[in-house]
Amino acid sequence: MSTRPRTSSVVSASSIVVSIQDYKDIKTSNVVNRKRRASSIVVTAVGEKELIDDIKIVNWTQLNEWQQDNEFIYDGYVQETNSVTKCMKSLKMMHNETINIWTHLIPSFFYLLLLIFFTDFMLEKKLTQILGSDHGAMDTIDYIMVNIFLLGAFLCLFCSSCFHCFKQHSENISNLWSKADYMGIIILISTSIISLLYYGFHDNLFLCKLFTILTTIFGATCGVFVLNDRFNHKDWKAVRASFFIMFAASGLLPIITGCFYFGIQEAINRVQLGFVFYEAVCYIAGALIYGFKVPECFYKPGKFDYFFNSHQIFHVCCVAGSIFHFKALIASFVHAKIGKHSIAA
Ligand SMILES: [Zn+2]
């Protein structure tokens, strides 16, 4: 009993010191940030950084258990907001999801612009210029193939940035957007494979149809796993990465078939394998970096909280992979239009 008052007096004394310091901090903070009240930061006694609009930035130890995902990322988490408005307002702040949001939001906007304008105002004109009016016309299937890829790329990147923006809302909303994020990846892989399949096998519609059916079945199977709550758990991170790698690798089946059916050189020309190779390197490297949490796993937690962590590198790899696919698709389309295809077998 005798030690309790002494302990509490020590606590009170230290509280006073902290309070005086806090007062100085708050006073200084108010002076510096008077002109920018909307984003001014007040440091509270428990060490949380609290914004005026009540969005809290916390570290790993102050985080709800459901929000704990990557133990190597220590600081910069937005605490559960339970508010769509606060999640949207967090876009103006620097936290550890900021780079994840913008690395996919900006490219998704570019893909949306391409989806609206590219085939109608750029590709058709360019084709006529390059190939003349005999070869330059786009038919309906060309129009659909190029646009479904652009739609897939837009949906994948947009769902991803929404997930990173709204994952701090609450556990349920985070799970919902996480599933949308995975579905976006499945849609991008499916539309990438199917669009290029057409230019690989456009004069053999049976093989084109066969591989389209196979890709649809693989994509649907992945979709069933993604919508399962167990698959969403953080312990399944490596499994998730390998699942997507396997689905993307199923794109090798039509390529190998094409090499046997048309010969290697013709297969290379038909689907522009050079670009497809770079695309595969980007996606596989990105998935491995994401799955094994490189580079943060080699250092003490906290070194890559805001920049250059595995998830951000994975995002950049995804965007680069999608750009290489877009190049492959357009080059394959032009190659098919020139009419150099010849069946070797
Ligand atoms: Zn992401």
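^ zinc ion complex. Residues 100, 160, 164, 311, 315 surround zinc ion (CB under 6 Å). Confidence is low (pLDDT under 50) at residues 1-48, 341-345.
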